[in-house]
Amino acid sequence: MNGAYNRDMMLQKEMLPAVHSIAGELFIFQQDSALAHRAREPVSLLERETPRFTGPDLWPPNSPDLNPVGYKVWGVIQERVYRLPIKDVSDLKQH
Length: 95
Known about the structure:
The protein has 95 residues and is mostly helical.
């Protein structure tokens, strides 16, 4: 995943609409320092679109104790992707 994909598909299309529908403007968005999270595109979007944003420079990497929700989200995504057998890379992208 790169910064543009993270911004367009993960944040704008999925995550931010879901968070706004649940929490309105009462949330703090945090990103760790994964490459796709600290890329210019998602950081700029989050600085504009979230009420309070803790950027990757202020958040330690690889910290499930600090952000357990992220680990739960990835578990749910993995369940959905691998629900059916994957034939090839094209099929994986489709899932």
